[in-house]
Amino acid sequence: MKRIAIVGLGVSGSYLSSMLKDNYHVVAFERVKEDKFDYSICAWGTCKNLMKDFAKNTGLNFEDYILHDGKEMQVKLSNNEEIWIKLKGLCTYDKHRLIMDMINAHEVHFDSKINHESNFDDFDLVIDATSMSRALLPRLDYDIFIPCLEYRVKFKEKPFDDFYIKPFDGLSGYLWYFPLDKNEAHVGAGDFYKRHISELKSFMNQNGGEIIRTIGRPIRITPPPKCLPFYNGKVVGVGEAIGTVYPLLGEGIIPSLQCSDLLLRNLYNLKNYEREVLKKFSVYGEVFEFIRAKIKKEFSWRKNFKYLLSMYLHMKFNEKRYGMNIKLRDMIKVIKTF
Fold it and tell me: Which of 98, 109, 244, 328 pairs with 314 at a CA distance of 20 to 30 A?
């Protein structure tokens, strides 16, 4: 039986460990100790419309993991106006429990210090699912990431009943409030210009609440075309390691699982895997150029409207995937405001 090593047990790694186990001898490696492997910089927000199918592939029922089923998202604008976005599938879920239930390798090694010097001679394929660190693939010449900080907060009285976000000037990031259960929520912020810490502190001072847990790490928004190579020898990357994070939202759960399915389909043809990833996530490059122009203060309607239009059409025709009602006027209003 061929041997496959999976390095990193986030969303992609845990899913792949389950999907590959029946046909390969799968050995999983995770750098974090098992007793500390319970969190990540993620608000646990995703779309149940697609997640139920991924969970079903591993023999699990996604409904068992849902913590909050969203109805409407409030977007706070800088002029104190608000936009209300109807939701149709956006939810929060117990990400840690789902990941632990998906891990199904023949061997699992926590507290593993894996790097470019690690020996994988006994394996036929090594999957780099190490997200931001890209531990086994060549370093990128060009990379943009967003520093993030998130709290799990327990409130006496929740400040919001549903999803809430507040974009930052220049659309360089945003503050988020994602409800969980039992009066708890994930409250976090990420910003290219590192204003996220002060914004998060201001939110907590205003709304109170007991901070149960703190987590922080950057999120890569560099799209797949700028994350080549996807493979090197018998090492192949998946998920955030090769740029499958939607740049507008910093969301990588569903894209990483979609990327994982592409890898499963092309285990013996990595060149075709590369082509399929670039095709599947081609719009991410255009969305990235739009965000980059805003962040770098180089945005102009004449030069960048084509990217806005691509972003809108992509999300409009994929409302089921994003779990929300997409309106062009809402996008334009946010862009004009910020």
Answer: 98
* pLDDT bucket at 207, cuts 50 / 70 / 90: very high
User: For residue 39, what pLDDT band results from cuts at 50, 70 and 90?
Assistant: low
Cα angle: 269, vertex 275, 281; to 5 degrees: 130
Half-sphere exposure of residue 189, counting CA atoms within 13 Å on the CB side?
Answer: 21
Token pair, residue 228, equals: 């080549």
Helix axes 48-57, 11-20, angle to 10 degrees: 40
CATH superfamily of 3-337: FAD/NAD(P)-binding domain (3.50.50.60)
Full DSSP string of 160-199: -SS-EEEEPGGGSEEEEEEE-STTEEEEEEEETTS-HHHH
In percent, how much of the chain has pLDDT > 70?
A: 99
Domain boundaries along the sequence of the chain: 3-337
Average of per-residue pLDDT across 225-246:
97
